[in-house]
Amino acid sequence: MRRLSLSSRLALLFAACTAVVSLFAGVLFSRASEAHFVELDQQLLDGKLIGLRRALHDLQSSDSEVKLAEELSRQADLSLRITGGDGQRWYDSSAHLPDKLPQQPGLSTLNDNGTDYRVLNAPLFVDKPDSPQLTLLLDITHHQHFLQRMQHLIWLTVGLSALATALLGAWAARSGLRPLRRMSAVARGVSAQSLDARLPEENMPPELAEMAHHFNAMLGRLDDSFQRLSAFSADIAHELRTPLSNLLTHTQVTLTRPRPLEDYREALHSNLEELQWMAQLVNDMLYLAKADHGLLMPKREPLELAEEADVLLEFFAPLAEDARVTLSREGSAHMDGDRSMLRRALSNLLDNALRFTPAGGEVRVRIADLAKGLSLTVENSGDGIDGAMLPRLFDRFYRADPARQEGSSEHAGLGLAITQSIIRAHGGQIRCESEIGWTRFVIEMPKGD
User: Fold this and answer.
1) At a CB cut-off of 8 Å and minimum separation 6, what does 271 contact?
2) What is the rounded CA–CA span in Å between residue 212 and residue 68?
3) Is residue 350 very low, low, confident or very high in pLDDT (cuts 50, 70, 90)?
4) Fewer Cβ neighbours under 10 Å: the N or C end of the chain?
5) What is the mean pLDDT of residues 303-324?
6) Beta-strand runs (E) in 124-241
């Protein structure tokens, strides 16, 4: 069964609400009208009862019947029946009165052969228990016909109101949902080649403006991710092309003619270096893939960051000495983390800092134990990084140095991406700050339990 559209649902809902409200209002009006007629009839019969009692006060007087006829003649649709205390019928003002009338005192309603009556029973003498009973019958057939016509009009009004509201609701819903149809058209046209499509947010109603904004932001993220993925695929091919080309060329040259055993050995050693570089690249890619899928599960062991930093600074000391760069460390802090992963992250930062620090420069490691966590900063002197490059420093295969060094395993452009994955796996964040003369990578980590 086909499901109703949103416009149809809103139209039916509007029609149902209008029908309910109209019906409720009509019933209230009908009940109020009926109560009003009852009140008028009560007042009329009470007034006639007083006149009839006055006319019948002295039943033995000669003019009592004249007074009674005169009183009844003033109201053409009023009839009277008088019964004795024993229930015997004494008098009927009309020959067409029903045989059985209500006996309960007070006001009641009676229908007899299509004629409606308002009946009032009251004693002739209020202070006498065996007083004759007066039964006043007021013909209210015209009242009832009016109420029936009004009820028919109410039902007709309810039906027409529901129909009109359904049509107007369908038009209003279709007009109001036009922005959603535009969103659907944009979404239908989105593909890998058209991720730059955006929804106009200016003319959107407030309820949909936020949705349009988030939809555009989603398209922007998809576009950015797709561009990064495309660039990433191109970078992989670019990085692997050089070592593969070297391997093919070197192997083909070696096999062009018979050579001494030492030449073959040298060729194999050269090929081994290229294969090791490719293996390292693949391992790094697998490592990042695990990080993307949340599969990096760092071990938790107590660590003294000052000791870990000192071990790495001692390892890089010979390289720093050759480059005439000064290494230093300040501060200390404790945390729970994976020793090997954190060493790898810090080693990547130190290696990156040494490569971009000029001779006579300085590389400093600062560790601070803060109230909400800890901070570890690796900073180096030298030329700053262009602010436009900072957001992309942690992208894979991205190099701030425009001179790409192809085929070098030391500069594949994955070190900072791996470092960011390690820090995030520990629940921390890393950012880069650069100014004239200094560049610093700031790591903020939560404290261990």
Assistant:
1) 247, 250, 251
2) 85
3) very high
4) N
5) 92
6) 133-139
